[in-house]
Design brief:
Strand content: 25-35%
Number of helices: 5
Helix content: 25-40%
Radius of gyration: 16 Å
Number of strands: 8
Strand order of the largest sheet: 1-2-3-4-5-6-8-7
Shape: globular
Length: about 200
Amino acid sequence: MNFNFNQNIVLEDEHVLLPPLQETDADNLLEISLNEPETWEYSLVQANGKENLINYIQLAVKARENKTQFPFIVFDKKSGKFAGSSRFYDINLDFKTLQLGFTWYGKQFRGTGLNKHCKFLMLQFAFEELGMERVEFRADNKNVRSIAAMISIGCKEEGILRNHMPTFDSDIRRDTIILSILKREWFDDVKDNLIKRL
């Protein structure tokens, strides 16, 4: 199994386009960054405001260069607008595992089905192109909306990492929920169930 981090991987269906996130994409996401700062309420790396957004994207691009992450920008074909971002990270080709996360969308794209299209494309690529055995998802255990979205695409809850990591600009530490989809689950029913909901 080989994952070429330098390759211009583009995932696409009739509703959404996911090209690799580039440093030049700051302008494409700036409107959300400036007007919807609460989007990163549960994120340790903030992207609210132009300076934070540029830093956020630079860190993502650097992680791709270091072959630990592969970030995408999300383009909603229906509205003709850039909607947010998502990525593969903690990619372990030897163990055939990765995490899927750093996902965020502007308000107008939440609850529209866009996320399901993005996740379908990313999961399909992970399991069917990369041959992954496990795709893991994590979230702040207080992030009810994010957890519900992960369960709705077929993730299974595995447990809670207590007092797992710091939160942004606070002495409070967060509990992190872990969810996952296994390769056999993808082919047994998760893929078909997700297709029906697209």
